[in-house]
What we know:
InterPro entries: ARL15, P-loop_NTPase, Small_GTPase_ARF/SAR. With 206 residues, the chain is of the alpha/beta class.
Amino acid sequence: MSECIQISFAVCRIGIYTCFRALCCKGPPPARPEYDLVCIGLTGSGKTSLLSKLCSESPENVVSTTGFSIKAVPFQNAILNVKELGGADNIRKYWSRYYQGSQGVIFVLDSASSEDDLEAARNELHSALQHPQLCTLPFLILANHQDKPAARSVQEIKKYFELEPLARGKRWILQPCSLDDMDALKDSFSQLINLLEEKDHEAIRM
């Protein structure tokens, strides 16, 4: 009986030691890199809803951004600190004041919007792509509201926005998205993170 108790105690001690070693000697997991991004687009493009969904926030609490807001959007291999700027007419002229320090750009457009709004979105994207503080940064361009009947395809958006000639030589991704397809949205952000990592590696080599 005493041998059984001694054996059990020994096993217990080994188990505790193994757990202690696993918890205390392995060390913390490597920190995920963080990137500071700016998110722009016209009012109604769906910027706030997309970011809130990525942060697993309740859609009932989503309120359109009037000034700016900052969200930390977590991914498995990175954390994106996204500064979302309001898209109203009287706010867009101040966007450039918030560009400093950005490492990447998210531009959200409503692919089912009116012709006038689509033209305004094109002008704003062209301005952002050519802005001195943004022109060398990776761009993720999201053609949102693809679930709506009037949504234009990615090819139509690319042609209308003249992305091939304007953004030649730049790092950019154009992807369709909607709140109904979170897998596709997360994949788009994963591609953006890859571009951000590539830019980091280039900076280190320089």
